[in-house]
Design a protein that fits this description.
heterodimer; A: mainly alpha; 5 helices; 2 strands; globular; B: alpha+beta; 6-stranded mixed β-sheet; binds adenosine-5'-diphosphate; binds magnesium ion; actin-binding (chain A); cytoskeleton (chain A); ARPC3_sf (chain A)
Chain lengths: ~190, ~475
């Protein structure tokens, strides 16, 4: 069995393509160009669910545009986890990840992006590139904040328990995944 | 003629573990690593003997006047010494803390010059000191160092089983595709050096099939089926039709117990656990790991059910300090490498269910049904909970996809293929147990070659053994 793929089919009514990169609706309160999301489960939930299993795989065949967003999300999660230090408090992690989400990140298609052979975007079109940039900023913030909720859940209590996450330490089970690199790549 | 009443000896020498005991018993009396520690200084003298193919029986070195018989020794496996007890590990030191080795009680049986060695768990202990070096005489199922193997058997017989070989028949096991020359070597050692009464060499996979007859799922006692034998170093997929191994279709994967242990060790290290020794990794493997239906869902189960996480306490020898090791996703990720080899290896990528399917597809078409509906598990590394269930599900889906595709192409409806994987209670030491079943039957001695046969016809006689017809 190969690595897990995104289960979201391309939907021309809600999804916009920038080259072969897709802008999909996400559930979020952060401002940005995402359309409102009608479903309970979005691509960000999927990135969080597939991050751990897919981190063990080196090979991945891109089948749909949403697979490209999935790869991006998984690589970004790895970068977030590398930013969270083992004893970092919840509040410090929030600050660190907000910074990471917004501060000068490399856009697909531009020099320094690790997957340019498979991501084609119209770099000559400034409007499209601005849309891509503001969508990714929104996507990264939302993903980072939902990741923190998972990482600061005490594994000994579980997600369903009442707990004050701001008092927890980050889960070593999640942090250990920084040692693995999905597709042998990192952002 | 005491061999007529004595139980036969059943020996299964695996790459990792040797299983040793008496026919008719439910389980081996001893299980220990197939390891030998030899003194660094002494050179062996017995190595030249195996080249001597003469049938001169004058030098029966090992004969003795002691009359320990199998009947009285049966069940002596419950020894209090830890290195005599049953072992589940071929490499780690399972609570072997003693530095005092038993003196070698073979001294009375022959000259002392050759006795400076230890086998099994004692060998592991001896090799911790400076004067002994450890080696494993069996590699990938086949004997590679005959001199070490002969000494290993010598100690097995006289020090563990404590029997007189001339008073017993022996059932030994061999891997699939064992060259006939190797059988002759074995016969020479057993008849000439040990002077054993009679010998039968059985193919491990065939014994594993016989062992599965204890399962309630098995209705006819057939010797047709596919054996998945997974030990410490390698996993074999062996198709057997009416007792004969279909040699051309056998396949191996280089993934077995040791690889799983190493994978657990790497996960413990990535998490920075306090003890990441192989011993700890192997115990976690044997006590906590299981096969899950789907790893994505299993990660989420761990998020929702905190009781899925476990803890393992490691105490030092003196019991003065404790280390607590947390156990997490390795519980289901470790055996997942059979089904998703990519998660641990970059050079071998074929999942076990796919390999089983390829093996059966490489067999003659008229036996395939029988091979799909009797897939029998054998060996320590098939012991993970739900291993058989997952294998059956994944293989079924491969087979059903192919059938559906054929139906689309040909437009004819298929009668379907019944895929059935057999797990049973004797699976861990299935090869040994199958040997115990066969060697306790009244017919067994008739299938053995005896000392007299050997003297009359020479070593070639062991190139063929008749198949058992136990039905
Ligand atoms: N309960 C268990 N669960 C998982 N692995 C086990 C269990 N018991 C033994 N093993 C593993 O099985 C292997 C030995 O299997 P065995 O069939 O005796 O090998 P071989 O015949 O090749 O020497 C070792 O790697 C050991 O760690
Ligand atoms: Mg074996």
């Amino acid at each position: 069995m190969p690595a897990y793929h995104s289960t979201f089919p391309y939907d021309p009514n809600t999804d916009r393509l920038i080259g072969n990169f897709v802008i999909m609706p996400i559930k979020t309160k952060f401002r940005g160009p995402s359309y409102p999301c009608n479903s309970d489960y979005d691509i960000i939930d999927e990135c969080l669910d597939l991050f751990r299993p897919n981190s063990f795989f080196k090979n991945f065949e891109i089948k749909t545009p949403s697979d490209r967003l999935l790869i991006y999300g998984i690589l970004f999660i790895n970068q977030c986890l590398a930013t969270i230090q083992p004893h970092m408090s919840y509040n410090d992690a929030v600050k660190a990840l907000v910074n990471l989400s917004l501060n000068h990140f490399v856009l697909p298609g531009t020099p320094g992006f690790p997957l340019n052979s498979t991501y084609q975007v119209p770099i000559e079109d400034p409007q499209q590139m601005a849309l891509l940039k503001s969508y990714l900023a929104q996507f990264r913030q939302e993903l980072a904040m939902r990741l923190i909720e998972r990482v600061y859940t005490d594994p000994k209590l579980g997600v369903e328990a009442e707990q004050d996450k701001t008092k927890n330490s980050p889960s070593k089970y999640w942090l250990s995944f920084t040692k693995r690199k999905f597709m042998n790549k990192s952002l | 003629m005491s061999y007529l009443n004595n139980p036969a000896i059943v020996m299964d020498n695996g790459t990792g573990l040797t299983k040793l005991g008496f026919a008719g018993n439910d389980s081996p009396s001893w299980i220990f690593p197939t390891a030998i520690a030899t003194s660094q200084g002494s050179q062996s003298t017995s190595s030249s003997k195996k080249l001597d193919t003469s049938m001169n029986m004058s030098n029966t070195n090992y004969s003795s006047s002691t009359t320990a018989t199998g009947a009285t020794s049966t069940g002596t496996g419950t020894n209090k010494n830890s290195y005599y007890a049953k072992s589940t590990s071929a490499t780690a030191f399972d609570n072997l803390s003693s530095n005092v080795l038993l003196s070698n009680n073979l001294a009375g049986k022959r000259g002392t010059e050759d006795l400076d060695f230890y086998i099994g768990n004692e060998a592991l202990i001896a090799s911790q000191g400076p004067s002994y070096s450890l080696s494993y005489p069996i590699k990938h199922g086949q004997i590679e160092n005959w001199d070490h193997m002969e000494r290993f058997w010598e100690n097995s017989i006289f020090k563990y089983l404590r029997v007189e070989p001339e008073d017993h028949y022996f059932l030994l096991t061999e891997p699939p595709l064992n060259p006939p020359e190797n059988r002759e070597q074995v016969a020479e050692i057993f008849f000439e050096s040990f002077n054993c009464a009679g010998l039968y060499i059985a193919v491990q996979a065939v014994l594993a099939l016989a062992a599965s007859w204890t399962s309630s799922k098995v209705i006819d006692r057939s010797l047709t089926g596919t054996v998945i034998d997974s030990g410490d170093g390698v996993t074999h997929v062996i198709p057997v039709a009416e007792g004969y191994v279909i040699g051309s279709a056998i396949k191996n994967i280089p993934i077995a117990g040791r690889d799983i242990t190493l994978f657990i060790q790497s996960l413990l290290r990535e998490r920075g656990e306090q003890d990441t020794s192989l011993k700890t990794a192997e115990r976690i493997k044997q006590e906590y790991c299981y096969v899950c239906p789907d790893i994505v869902k299993e990660f989420n189960k761990f998020d929702r059910n905190p009781e899925k996480f476990a803890q393992f306490v490691v105490e030092n020898k003196e019991r003065t300090s404790k280390k607590i090791i947390d156990i997490g996703y390795e519980r289901f990720l470790a055996p997942e490498i059979f089904f998703n080899p990519e998660i641990a290896s970059s050079d071998f990528l074929t999942p076990l269910p796919t390999l089983v399917d390829q093996t059966i597809q490489a067999c003659p078409i008229d036996v395939r049904k029988g091979l799909y509906n009797n897939i029998v598990l054998s060996g320590g590394s098939t012991m993970f909970k739900d291993f058989g269930r997952r294998l059956q599900r994944d293989l079924k889906s491969i087979v059903n996809n192919r059938i559906a595709q054929n139906e689309r192409l040909t437009g004819t409806k298929s009668t379907g293929v019944d895929v059935s994987v057999i797990s049973h209670r004797k699976q861990r030491n299935a090869v040994w147990f199958g040997g115990s079943l066969l060697a306790q039957t009244a017919e067994f001695r008739g299938y053995c070659h005896t000392k007299q046969d050997y003297e009359e016809y020479g070593p070639e006689i062991v190139r063929n053994f008749s198949l058992f017809n136990m039905v």
